[in-house]
Design a protein that fits this description.
The complex is a heterodimer of chains A (195) and B (271). Chain A has 195 residues and is mostly helical. Chain A has nine helices and no strands. Chain A starts with a helix and ends in an 8-residue tail after the last helix. Chain A has one domain. In chain A, helix 3 packs parallel to helix 7. With 271 residues, chain B is α+β, with helices and mostly antiparallel strands. Chain B folds into two domains: 55 residues, Electron transport complex subunit B, putative Fe-S cluster (3-methyladenine DNA Glycosylase II, Chain A, domain 3); 162 residues, 2-Layer Sandwich (Alpha-Beta Plaits), CATH 3.30.70. Classes of the chains: A mainly alpha (195), B alpha+beta (271). The interface between A and B is medium-sized, with 19 and 16 residues.
């Protein structure tokens, strides 16, 4: 992959096609764990980790199982199965081998197993017919994009706590309005033309 | 044929992954520490949060890891601390038993700004013109702390919340429940207490409260150990210096200072 391709892929995955704010995948953790910075950080790490690992596994399933047998239409079901099992496996592995990392990722690891953002990466990779390296890189960068959106949103919500807004908008309503505005801001990136 | 291959692929995938997981569960089995369960059983299990952890279970986990102090549970007190130390095999540290003090003696002795007839909750009452009491620092007396206390240690007597130090475990749930922030942790064995937090000037306070601290500094002068300090028109005691002699209680012109040696039960003296 050329460095131009790399930049295109990174900008695309992180900003232009941001998973949360442009594709609207993974909204649940985006709203759910964005109240505190440390939970947001844990979730971000877990998402990057699981996305990267699962994209490698789903690439193998797609390439060596689904395509040769002509059952690509079963992709979604097979991917869910593989990702769920993989996350379980990784969790057990981490608990034994790297307890510190397991503790840092904590409850978020099993939480995002069936997240649509994770499945989304797998499906997008399968549809594009990406190679192994490209798939994993795209997944990693998408995870970074998710983290960026989550941490941005989290910081804004922290400020929101001390801001004055109508009482009826207290809590989630104002958070959703903010998320909408943030998504609107990210549409600005869609006009970026790369090379 | 198509259907068959789909079934075979998914079925095969499921069986393979299932076997893999079962095998991995054996391989990576984390040895559960039997001690963790014993610690959890010893703890009171009411999840009051007095130790600084969210739940008793979280505290037990930290105890087991050696991160928490065996005397950290305010509810179990000395007895539990001894049991835990024995179980964990660590040196027993002398813990300081805490109780709380409502820093107001006003109640019926403090003037009302208006007659409040709303919901029986201090926070609700505070929403209306800062509460029904003239004194901005005084106890509202509607018992938000009473409801917050899981041990029934607080009761409202003569319009002011009073803590029974025997029942109080020092969990400090009431501290955060008070909208006026006048409940403070104090050592259980402290004898002398000043239950007023008013920063009003003496002349102003005299008009709105019959018992509150005027900031006359008599207590500060009679204190031989330098424990009593008057700052911003309000006296307070440094419990590390206080010898518990009770001289200040004797000399207080408002009879505000309570010497528990004379009167361990209800905090208030006859006015």
């Amino acid at each position: 992959m050329t460095w131009q391709g790399l930049i295109t892929l990174s900008l695309g995955a992180i900003l232009i096609e941001n998973f949360v704010l442009v594709k609207f995948l993974g909204i649940c953790p985006f709203i759910g764990v964005s109240k505190k910075l440390d939970t947001a950080l844990g979730m971000s790490m877990a998402v990057v980790f699981v996305m990267t690992v699962s994209s490698a596994a789903t690439w193998a399933v797609q390439e060596f199982l689904l395509v040769p047998l002509g059952v690509e239409y079963m992709g979604m079901v097979a991917f869910i199965l593989v990702i769920a099992a993989l996350v379980q496996l990784v969790e057990m592995f981490l608990q034994k081998i790297a307890p510190a990392l397991h503790k840092a990722l904590g409850v978020y690891l099993p939480l995002i197993t069936t997240n649509c953002a994770i499945l989304g990466v797998a499906i997008i990779n399968a549809e594009n017919g990406s190679g192994f390296f490209e798939s994993v890189l795209f997944a990693f960068l998408s995870g970074v994009g998710f983290s960026l959106a989550l941490l941005l949103f989290c910081s804004i919500r922290a400020r929101l706590e001390f801001s004055e807004h109508p009482e009826a908008f207290e809590g989630f309503p104002i958070a959703l309005v903010t998320a909408g505005l943030l998504a609107l801001a990210f549409t600005g990136f869609s006009s970026i033309r790369i090379f | 044929m198509d259907t068959l291959s789909a079934i075979l692929v998914l079925g095969g995938l499921g069986v393979t992954l299932g076997l893999l997981l079962a095998f991995a569960a054996r391989l990576f089995k984390a040895e559960a520490d039997p001690r963790a369960g014993d610690i959890t059983d010893l703890l009171p299990g009411i999840n009051c949060g007095g130790c600084g952890y969210e739940t008793c279970q979280a505290f037990a986990k930290e105890l087991n890891a050696g991160q928490a102090d065996a005397a950290g549970c305010p509810v179990g007190g000395q007895e539990l601390a001894e049991k835990l130390s024995a179980l964990l095999g660590v040196e027993m540290k002398e813990g300081l038993r805490l109780a709380v003090l409502v820093r107001c003696s006003g109640g019926v002795r403090a003037r009302d700004k208006f007659q409040y007839e709303g919901i029986g909750d201090c926070h609700a009452a505070m929403r209306i013109g800062g509460g029904p009491k003239e004194c901005p620092y005084g106890c509202v007396g509607l018992g938000s702390c009473v409801h917050a206390c899981p041990f029934g240690a607080i009761s409202v007597v003569d319009g002011v919340a009073v803590v029974d130090p025997e029942r109080c475990t020092g969990c400090r749930l009431c501290v955060s429940s008070c909208p006026k922030h006048i409940i403070v942790p104090v050592p259980y064995h402290a004898d002398v207490h000043i239950a007023c937090s008013s920063l009003e000037k003496g002349g102003t306070l005299r008009k709105i409260c019959d018992i509150g601290c005027l900031g006359c500094r008599i207590c500060e002068k009679v204190c031989i150990s330098g424990a009593v300090r008057v700052e911003d028109n309000c006296a307070s005691i440094d419990f590390e210096k206080c010898s518990g002699c009770g001289d200040c209680a004797e000399k207080c012109p408002r009879k505000l200072i309570v010497d528990a040696k004379l009167d361990r039960g209800p905090r208030l003296m006859e006015g």
